[in-house]
């Protein structure tokens, strides 16, 4: 249990006590509560034998709670004491009325504050921040994976473009060679025709002269 002892010492010395522990921690809590100067408003903390004792003094009333060091956070303890102070002042317990009701309220609050994650606002905010952080990291991981895939697609597209460009250049060269080859054979054929025509004319002329 986070909070093991809760003590309220009124201006006239009357004490209201709710405790879940016995022995030295309880005796130390009683001793501190009685020795605190109730004219000195403020917050104080003491440590002894593995326990931490948090004190809130206001309007000549001393509010004290104790728990194991490392388990009871200061902000949780003083939030708990502030709740006790508000209830004490609201309920008129300083007039010695319904003390048993105040004790029941204190016991219920001790149980509620046994789970600081449900009460400590900072812990709640930290929990929400961690949740948001986890979601953000998950989204970032997915984004990085997606970017990786996009980069692979872009790289593949670039390779395809390079291959397409190379194919276009090769095709253009091939077409140019084909045109040159066609032109060459056209010239050769034309020369052959001219030579053949010249031979035919020569033969005709020779026949005419010999006849």
Automatic annotation (TrEMBL):
Chief localisation class: membrane
Membrane topology: Single-pass type IV membrane protein
GO biological process, one term: protein transport
SUPFAM superfamilies from the UniProt entry: SNARE fusion complex, SNARE-like
Transmembrane segments: 183-209
Record localization: Cytoplasmic vesicle membrane; Endomembrane system
Any one GO CC term of the record: cytoplasmic vesicle membrane
Keywords: Coiled coil, Cytoplasmic vesicle, Membrane, Protein transport, Transmembrane, Transmembrane helix, Transport
Record domain V-SNARE coiled-coil homology: where: 121-186
Family listed: Belongs to the synaptobrevin family.
Protein name as catalogued: RSNARE, VAMP72-family
Protein species of origin: Acanthamoeba castellanii (strain ATCC 30010 / Neff)
Taxonomic placement: Eukaryota, Amoebozoa, Discosea, Longamoebia, Centramoebida
């Amino acid at each position: 249990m986070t909070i093991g002892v809760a003590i309220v010492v009124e201006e006239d010395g009357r004490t209201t006590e709710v405790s879940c522990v016995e022995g030295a921690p309880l005796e130390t809590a009683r001793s501190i509560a009685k020795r605190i100067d109730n004219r000195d408003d403020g917050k104080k903390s003491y440590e002894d034998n593995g326990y931490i004792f948090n004190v809130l003094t206001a309007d000549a009333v001393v509010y004290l709670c104790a728990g194991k060091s490392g388990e009871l956070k200061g902000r949780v303890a003083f939030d708990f004491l502030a709740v006790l102070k508000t209830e004490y002042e609201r309920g008129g317990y300083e007039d010695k009325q319904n003390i048993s009701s105040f004790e029941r309220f204190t016991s219920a609050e001790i149980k509620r504050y046994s789970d600081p994650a449900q009460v400590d606002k900072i812990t709640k905010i930290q929990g929400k921040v961690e949740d948001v952080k986890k979601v953000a990291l998950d989204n970032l991981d997915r984004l990085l994976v997606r970017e990786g895939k996009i980069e692979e697609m872009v790289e593949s597209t670039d390779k395809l473009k390079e291959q397409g460009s190379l194919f276009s250049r090769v095709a253009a060269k091939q077409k140019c060679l084909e045109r040159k080859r066609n032109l060459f054979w056209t010239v050769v054929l034309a020369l052959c025709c001219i030579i053949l025509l010249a031979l035919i004319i020569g033969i005709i002329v020779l026949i005419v002269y010999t006849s």
